[in-house]
Design goal:
The chain is of the alpha/beta class. It contains 12 helices and 15 strands. Bound molecules: pyridoxal-5'-phosphate. One of its GO terms (molecular function) is transaminase activity.
């Protein structure tokens, strides 16, 4: 019973799955570290890691053992009871995130739903009947109704109106637009922003991370909550535990998911400063919030990240990869940007077909976002040898593609 092996899915095989995903015609049956394997044993370099999820790589032995042990001991009781692993995971996460209160969710979208609820309640506590949240163009915050309404991408919203109201949109990186919104809308209570826009094309603000410092200043002036969506940029991805730690400021609300669980579905909405104490008993919840199993996963991942110095490795290898790509592709009209191991290579033309070319010809899993940006999100514990292997395959592929 425990050793069932499934045959790979055939492209023409009938399926009961809702056809919401555009899937590639390949399935992987196992993974190890930075590599994925098909049933016939072909090895692929995974430079996507489940879209910034498996930062520790596939089948990390310490994490696998912790999951197996906890599954064989106790998976879930309910938040009707104390959950020691949840308390321990919250303590560890609070430490690395610089936050005070934590609610565990099950995904990035749910974490952002929590943040949106915090902002609205924060407004209502001050007598603001119709609280508004500033969000950015080209942002991505999730697929639930409130988070798709916050998202700055028409394709995500089309067909799902009426959208949730209460969002004011500004161009990413534009401080003047935020200041103008403050004048025109007295009922703004918060800003929700990604430090680096992932789905939108690995976009950093033109002024870099000082954008976040400017936002912090405006939030202080107007008594708004500064809320950062670090679903993708968190958990070591940019070379700091959270991307805001590249600056001297701290947000009031911080959301995360993805790398928090390395493939186990778990997220978190966290608060400090003005965000603390807004949600109280009965305001929020979820059956699966911080199960014993999910919490042990979070605890174990942070422990591994700390013991193996993984965030420092992400910073170092990320800087090396960016520098090598910039110099080796200097004559090819590409722009390489990003922090740590969240890297975008913008090409001078649309390049969606590079996903298939990378997979079939170079045995490399990558992603293309915003039409012409190759997005790299490799494992955070990538070795020097693997970094060189990745650079070599990318440079060869992009040179051939642009030739
Ligand atoms: C910045 C950001 N926020 C939210 C989400 C949504 O997370 P999830 O798919 O776990 O709901 C994503 C997913 O790509 C993301 O990149």
């Amino acid at each position: 019973m425990n050793n069932i092996t499934l045959a790979p899915v055939q492209p023409d095989q009938p399926s009961h799955l809702m056809p919401v995903f555009g899937r590639q015609p390949i399935s992987f049956v196992r993974g190890r570290g930075a590599y994925l394997y098909t049933e016939d044993g072909t090895e692929y370099f995974d430079a996507l890691t489940g879209i910034a999820v498996c930062g520790l790589g596939h089948a990390h032995p310490v994490l696998a053992e912790a999951i197996a042990d906890q599954a064989a001991t106790l998976i879930h009781t309910s938040n009707l009871f104390e959950v020691p692993w949840q308390t321990a995971a919250a303590q560890k996460l609070a430490e690395v995130a610089g936050m005070e209160e934590i609610f565990f969710s099950n995904s990035g979208a749910e974490s952002n739903e929590g943040a949106i609820k915090i902002a609205r309640k924060f407004g209502h506590m001050q007598g603001i009947a119709s609280p508004k949240i500033i969000v950015a163009d080209r942002s991505f915050h999730g697929r639930t109704l409130a988070t798709l309404s916050a998202t700055g991408n028409k394709k995500v919203q089309d067909g799902f109106g009426p959208l949730v109201e209460g969002f004011i949109r500004v161009p990413f990186g534009d401080i003047e637009a935020i200041e103008e919104a403050a004048i025109n809308h007295p009922d703004i209570v918060a800003i929700l922003i990604e430090p680096i826009q992932g789905e939108g094309g690995v976009n950093t603000a033109p002024q870099g991370f000082s954008y976040l410092e400017e936002i912090r200043h405006i939030c202080n002036q107007h008594n708004w909550l500064m809320m950062l969506d670090e679903v993708q940029t968190g958990n070591g991805r940019t070379g700091k535990y959270f991307a805001y730690q590249h600056t001297n400021i701290v947000p009031d609300v911080l959301t995360t998911a993805k790398g928090l669980g390395n493939g186990f579905p778990i997220g978190a909405v966290m608060t400090q400063g003005r965000g603390v104490g807004v949600l109280t008993a009965g305001n929020h919840g979820s059956t699966y919030s911080g199960t014993a199993l999910g919490s042990r996963v979070v605890y174990t991942i942070i422990d591994i990240m700390q013991k193996e110095n993984i965030v420092a490795n992400a910073a170092e290898k990320g800087a090396y990869i960016v520098e090598q790509l910039r110099s080796q592709l200097a004559d090819h009209q590409v722009t390489v940007r990003g922090f740590g191991l969240m890297i975008g290579i913008e090409l001078p033309k649309d390049c969606g077909d590079l996903v298939n070319i990378a997979r079939d010809e170079y045995k490399m899993i990558i992603n293309v976002t915003a039409g012409n940006v190759v997005r790299l999100l490799p494992t955070l514990n990538i070795t020097q040898e693997q970094a060189d292997q990745l650079i070599e395959r990318l440079v060869t592929m992009i040179k051939a593609y642009l030739a």
